[in-house]
Amino acid sequence: MVTRCTAFVLLIFGCHENSATTVGSSSSSTSSASALATTPDDVGNVTAYAKVEDAFAAVLQQDPTVLAIGEGHAPHGATVASSTKRFTESLLPLLAGRASDLLVELMMPPKGCAKQAETMQTVQKPVVTQQAETNQNEYVLMGEAARKLGIVPDLLRPSCDDLAAINDAGEEAIDRSLETIARLTTAQATKMLTRAGHKMVVTYGGALHNDPTPPPERAAWSYGPALASASAGRFIQLDLYVPEFITEEDVWRKQSWYTAWVARKASNKVLLFHVAPKSYVLIFAPSTG
Q1: Which residue, 12, 35, 113, 169, is the most exposed by fewest CB within 10 angstroms?
Q2: For 173-203, b where at least 16 C-beta lie within 10 A, e where not — what string?
Q3: Segment holding 53, helix H or strand E
Q4: Are 104 and 143 in contact (CB under 8 A)?
Q5: pLDDT digits (tens, 9 = 90+) for 230-258
Q6: CA R_g for the chain
Q7: Distances in Å between the alpha carbon of 163 and those of 32, 97, 169, 237, 257?
Q8: Minimal CA–CA distance to 234: which of 281, 196, 206?
């Protein structure tokens, strides 16, 4: 249960990398996206939309059983709305009646882990301090909004031993954290699938864990392959980015969609990239006002 009163939550590590290295194009997915858009503008693997809801609807038309959403976390000092807030307000309502569960990338330690949890917060501090202070609370608000829509929210539920293993990992603590996120997400989302019926299970967290075909060096951090298998291939990766948070740093410039985004960002439209089979990147329109 996600509530601000009862949930002791930890914002865990998540990155804004999307590991797709090739730019793919699917005629079937492009045509379905066009059918749902309001006067879409198709150029190769990217479709421009006036409304973010239309871009999201195009992804939903792929009819996934698992919709794995990743985001670029809002950085410290952010002055525009985060992907989390935009998803909660504009896109989450479109999942009402279609999604059974929402699993968010926050950790809820069990009772009796106070010492491990306190140490965990110290381990996370170098990463968390780079993020907006509102990030964690926005995840909690997302869970509350989901429940109002009839979607059951949940957090990642590590054991005391899981936290202790991260705390004891020393210089490998971040890697151990990322591996723990992937393992817990796989286990909990798989259980959700067994009761979801014909509805989808949605996961939401950092855009480092949801790649269905991660490169070998990041395979241990991704739940994508396992959940793609558990859903019989009905798995969609969707990464959400706020344009104001995209910089000229190498981590961004290496993305397969970066050059096309730079050429088109002045359009002030929502851009949906089909970066690889089962993988999409949605970049919101620039903020106004």
Answers
A1: 35
A2: bbebbbbbbbbbbbebbbebbeebeebbbbb
A3: helix 52-60
A4: yes
A5: 999 999 999 999 999 999 999 999 999 99
A6: 18
A7: 44, 35, 10, 27, 36
A8: 196
For residue 141, give every residue at least 6 positions away whose Cβ sits within 8 Å of its Cβ, in sequence order, or none.
Answer: 88
Q: How far apart are CA 271 and CA 262, in angstroms?
A: 11
Q: Where are the domains of the chain?
A: 10-283
Contact by Cβ (8 Å): 156, 11: no
Written as six digits, the tokens of 55 are 């871009």
Strand pairing class (270-276; 46-49): antiparallel
DSSP 245: G
130: helix, strand or coil: coil
First CA to last CA across the chain, in angstroms?
A: 35
CB of 143 closer than 8 Å to CB of 102:
yes
Instruction: Give the phi and the psi of residue 238 in degrees, each rounded to 5.
Output: -135, 115
pTM of the predicted model as reported, rounded to 2 decimal places:
0.83
